[in-house]
Specification:
By secondary structure, the protein is α/β, with parallel strands linked by helices. It has five helices and five strands, in the order βαβαβαβαβα. α1 packs across α5 and α2 packs parallel to α3.
Length: 129
């Protein structure tokens, strides 16, 4: 079974940056999926069951907090690793991220190397870059 990463962000340039950052993982058989709002992101999580989700907080239709809460606490999909990715770096927001079940909280602008390394770690991919 191939590993899957889902990128959920309403900003096109952020989605593209994340895709470019993670595209070399495709060589290891990782499938990259994208969604441009919380609602479609939640649907993709339900249908594709990705191993790792990069989730923006402020999005149309459903916020990242709402999506994360639904996945982790309502649907009980605890094995999906969720990284909240947001411009909102205040302690209050990070605390809310933890409350809804986020595994990690990264603020924008993010370090592409950190994103890649964390993705490899979560997916259990260990190889030379």
């Amino acid at each position: 079974m191939s590993k899957k990463i889902l990128i959920v962000d309403d900003e096109v340039h952020i989605r593209l940056l994340l895709e470019q950052t993670l595209e070399e993982l495709e060589d290891a058989g990782v499938e990259l999926l994208v969604a441009d709002n919380g609602e479609s992101g939640l649907e993709k999580i339900k249908s594709e069951q990705p191993n790792l989700v990069f989730l923006d907080v402020m999005m149309p239709k459903l916020s990242g907090f709402d999506v994360c809460n639904e996945v982790k606490n309502v649907l009980g999909m605890k094995d999906i690793y969720i990284i909240m990715l947001t411009a909102k770096g205040q302690e209050f927001d990070q605390k809310k991220g933890k409350e809804v079940g986020a595994d990690l909280y990264l603020t924008k602008p993010f370090d592409p190397d950190e994103v890649l390394e964390k993705s490899q770690e979560v997916l259990g991919l260990v190889y030379e870059l």
